[in-house]
Structure formats: C-alpha cells, structure tokens
Amino acid sequence: MSTRLKNKEERIQQILERLAEANENNTPIVVEGKKDIETLRTLGITGEIITAKKGGRSLIDILQAIESKQPKEVILLLDFDRRGKETTQFLKNHLERARISPNLKFWTQLDLLVSRQVKDIEGLAAYMETLKRKLSSNPQT
User: The sheet that has 73-76: what strands, in order across it?
Assistant: First the structure.
C-alpha cells in the first residue's frame, strides 16, 4: 500500500509542478473561490489565478474579464463535485466560442487521482500533507 501511496504522491506533485510551470508562462488558472487561490499559493503556484466567484458577479462577467486579458489559453481548475464539473463545462464551452483554449488537462489528471478523497481544490494541500504524513510514518516507503 505504501508504494501505491508514494506513486500517487509523486504523480500529484508532478502535475502540480507542470501546473506551476504553465502558470508562470502566462497561462492564467481559473478556480472557484479565494480558498482555492490560497491553496494553490501554498502548493507553489505563483502566477495569475482568477476566481469564478467574485462578489455577486456572474459567470458571464468572469468570462468577459478573462476575454479582456486576451489569453491564448486558460487552465480550468474548478472543484471535482457536480457543481464544479458543471461550471467547468460552461466555462469550457464559452471560452471555446471566444477562441480561448480551455486547458482541462490538469483538472482531469487531478480528478482521476484524488476525486474520491478530495472534492475541491482547497482540500488539495491538506490531502498532500496527509499523504506525506502517512508516507513518513511508514518506513517501508
């Protein structure tokens, strides 16, 4: 079991490193809320992060704000629950119409690895800490 956990932790860490690299190369990340931003900062993401929940603004307002920045690509990293999946699909469809490439690669990879244990992006840092704690308490890793 510890080998499986170690592999999982390494794969998540690799995804986060690639996410940080893409974000540093001027690809903004869209998350649901402020706690998601805080979590990504804790995990080493330093570039532009846009929240889809901004004080009563609609998703259309958020899309217009994204479009005004004229990015070629936007990383969608919303929660893994039903609402997050619906919002991701909505944003994906509208970004494509605006000729902005929606990147779902990181979201899909993380969803496959953690969706049973983590329902939202804000839970990702705590989950990584739990994995590290389990691995450090097991000397067979």
Answer: 49-51, 29-31, 73-76, 101-103
Distance between CA atoms of 12 and 96, rounded to whole angstroms?
27
Question: What's the pTM value of the predicted model, to 2 decimals?
Answer: 0.90
DSSP 3-state assignment of 70? coil
Q: Give residue-wise pLDDT tens across range 79-124.
A: 999 999 999 999 999 999 999 999 999 999 999 999 889 999 999 9
Amino acid at 110: L
3-class secondary-structure state, position 112: helix
Q: What is the maximum alpha-carbon separation in the chain?
A: 52
What are the structural domains, with CATH classification, of the chain?
2-137 (3.40.1360.10)
